[in-house]
Amino acid sequence: MRVRPAISGRQLRYLCLLTALANLGGNPLMLAFQRPAFQALQIPLPADDYLFTLQCALSFTMGVVALVMFIRPDRGLLIIGIVGKGLYAAITYYFWAIQRVDAWFLLFVVWDAAFVLVFFLYWIQLAQPDLVELGHSVFAGLDARKEAPRRALVIGLSLTGNGRKAIDRLVAGLTGEGYTVDLAWVQAHESIFRFPMSWGAFARVIVRAFFRVPAKARLELPARHDWDLVVVESPTWLLGAAAPVETLLAGGEYRDLFKGRDAAVMVVCRGAWQRSCAMLVRRLERAGANVVAARGYPNQGWEPARLMLLWWKLLAKRDRLWGVQYGLSDEMLGHVQQLGVDLARRVRNRPHWTLLPEARHA
Ligand SMILES: Cc1cc2nc3c(=O)[nH]c(=O)nc-3n(C[C@H](O)[C@H](O)[C@H](O)COP(=O)(O)O)c2cc1C
User: Fold this and answer.
1) Ligand 1 pocket, 235 CB below 6 A?
2) What pTM does this model have?
3) Residue 1 confidence (pLDDT)
4) Coil, strand, or helix at residue 26?
């Protein structure tokens, strides 16, 4: 099993088709059978036939937009869809609130609002398709003619121990494939980034994460710098990468660690890894790294127990709540180890001339 986005691009595309069929089929049916349908549901008939027909025609047009989105996914059309469905939901809700339409119309409000979300998620995925790919493949590495040294640097930050466990398994995967691994923990300078946390420290971390306030941090590095792979691990804090890790990648001090090297991102989280991965991937790319993979690993359990348990863990150091155990499952840790193996075995780009037949026979 591979860890993928909650809703894949393919599923989002088929959801576009679903709303297209609903709008394209539903509106003509509504116009044709409005009288018996409204009477059966005991809804008063629309006061103005002309306005009702016009509304159905506009909704039909939205169906055409959704159908074109399905046939040829396009970010511009998705924006039209977001605005259109958003307005439909808001206007219908308003007219229900002032008691001008029946409660049945709330179904349209829910439907249209749900599709605003679907279109928005699709819009994000279309904006950065490489991030989706990086979530389940390992891209080709940089040219490694020298074959040696097969040495990796793993940079990580772990407050509650999840990242530490994940890193152990990643290292096991890498070393099993012949890698030597150097570990460098991100050392945050401020005392609020410690575990266990007080309520005050937790609130400060959250507020600072909301405003993306940089955090002071440094790395303790070994003398040898001959790595061909750098893996950056981070927990998610308030839907983004942990501030000390992000600050470290954003600054110029450690840029040389990433420049011209293969790099991978590993995020551990309660459930939201996509934005953290995106932030770290873009930071690494800006630092000149060749990013080959970016994975997120969520904690085990079900919501809302998993969320409650996180607070429970942070503030009371408890590991179990309502039968849910805090942290990554054994299965998830197995995926992490497999990532180590996949990274170690990643395909390297060869210089073009070694692929020519005459060079092969030389
Ligand atoms: C201050 C704080 C905020 C967090 N916010 C989120 C969040 O928004 N989304 C999420 O999925 N996990 C969130 N988490 C959970 C951690 O990402 C998760 O438990 C992670 O596995 C912790 O890794 P660590 O044990 O290596 O520190 C948060 C944790 C902390 C400490």
Assistant:
1) yes
2) 0.79
3) 45
4) helix
pLDDT of residue 261: 94
Q: Is the CB of 160 under 6 A from ligand 1?
A: yes
**What does residue 84 show for φ and ψ, rounded to 5 degrees?**
-60, -50
Contacts of residue 202, Cβ cutoff 8 Å, sequence gap at least 6: 314, 315
Whose CA is closest to 220, among 170, 248, 255, 186? 186
| Residue where one domain finishes, among candidates 92, 127, 162 | 127
Q: How close is the Cα of 16 to the center of ligand 1, in Å?
A: 33
Please give the tally of structural domains in the chain: 2
Which among 95, 127, 159 is the end of a domain?
Answer: 127
DSSP state, 161? S
Same structural domain, 116 and 181: no
Is the CB of 326 inside a 6 Å radius of any atom of ligand 1? no
Torsion on CA atoms 296, 300, 305, 306, rounded to nearest 10: -30
**Ligand 1 close to Cβ of residue 244 (< 6 A):** no
Which ranges of 128-189 does DSSP label H, i.e. alpha helix?
Answer: 129-134, 162-176
Query: Which residue has the CA at smallest separation from atom 8 of ligand 1?
Result: 238
Q: What is the mean pLDDT of each run of 10 residues along the chain (362 residues)?
A: 68 96 96 92 88 95 97 95 97 94 94 97 88 88 69 96 97 96 95 90 94 93 92 96 96 93 96 93 95 95 91 88 92 96 83 44 39
Indicate if ligand 1 lies below 6 Å from the C-beta of 6: no
Ligand 1 in reach of 296 Cβ (< 6 A): no
| Predicted local confidence at residue 149, as pLDDT | 63
Q: Are 324 and 301 in contact (CB under 8 A)?
A: yes
Which whole-number Å values give the CA distances from 23 to 28, 58, 63, 246, in the listed order?
9, 10, 5, 44
Strand 262-269 to 290-298 pairing: parallel
For residue 165 and ligand 1, the question of a CB distance below 6 A is answered with no
CA distance 298 to 144: 33
Q: Whose CA is nearest to atom 4 of ligand 1?
A: 237
Identify the pLDDT of residue 334. Answer: 97
Question: And the tokens for 19?
Answer: 């709303």
Token pair 């599923």: residue: 11
Distance 239 CA to ligand 1 centre (A): 9
Query: Are residues 319 and 175 part of one domain?
Result: yes
Q: Is 192 in the pocket of ligand 1 (CB under 6 A)?
A: no
